[in-house]
Amino acid sequence: MRSRPLYDVVAVLARLGVGIVFMAHGWQKIEAGITATGRTFDGLGVPLPTAAAVYSAFVELLGGAALIAGLGLPVTGALLFIDMAGAFIFVHADQGLFVVDGGTPRNGYELVLALGMASLVFAAGGGGRLTLDQWIIGKRLRATTSADDEDDAASFVESLRQAESKPPKKPRRTPKPPAPEPAAPPEKPTPEGSDDDLLVAGRRKNPQRRRASTTQPIKPPTDDPESP
């Protein structure tokens, strides 16, 4: 099982080696001159030789430098792969595999094939993490995360301010139960013989009169009809 830090270091070394080769070929074309390079491409049967010379010279020089730095690897790797694919198809495909075979220059496609496949690997994400691309992406992610944290903190502080500015809610008062009605005082008993006592047929007679009538003597009846 590979170690990720070890792979990153190996990827840096691979980008460095391939990038140096590309930069050397690009600088060679620029030093010879774009016009002379275009005439050479025309003699090899390359279509649009001047445009092809400009493309290959600057893509190889600048692309090699970007490959070493790890800048824009998907685009850089794709452009270098297209450059090597054109060289393979129009120049080296019918020259055999070896650049030099038995001491005789053959101008084969072995170098073009190796550089093109390495460029394709880097374009597909094989450049490792020690690149400018990863540094830029990480910086943007950190900036985005810090901005999100600041927004969250600001919204939290604003919510606290709104909560402090609102008046506190008064607690609801529970209705008190109605006070019980005072009990009626008990009625005082009325003494017997008072004038307030009523009979069914009317007022009671005065007991003094009743006593007076009972103390009078009863006259015996007489035979004289004239007597009272």
Provide tags for this entry.
228 residues, mainly alpha, two-stranded antiparallel ribbon, 7 helices, 60% helix, disordered C terminus
SSE blueprint:
Blueprint: H1 4-32, H2 34-43, H3 49-69, H4 73-92, E1 100-101, E2 104-105, H5 110-123, H6 132-165, H7 207-215
Helix pairs in contact: 1-2, 1-3, 2-3, 3-4, 4-5
Summarize this entry quickly.
The protein contains seven helices and two strands.
Distance between the termini: 159 Å
How many H/I helices?
A: 7
Task: Please tell me how large the radius of gyration is.
Answer: 62 Å
User: Which sheet architecture does the biggest sheet show?
Assistant: 2 strands, antiparallel
Tell me the strand percentage band. under 5%
Report the mean per-residue pLDDT as an integer: 79
**H/E element string?**
HHHHEEHHH
Task: Give the total of beta strands.
Answer: 2
Specify the helix fraction band.
Answer: 55-70%
Structural class: mainly alpha
Order of the strands making up the biggest sheet: 1-2
Query: Which stretches are low in confidence, meaning pLDDT under 50 for 5 or more residues running?
Result: 196-203, 210-215, 223-228
Q: Which outline best applies?
A: rod-shaped
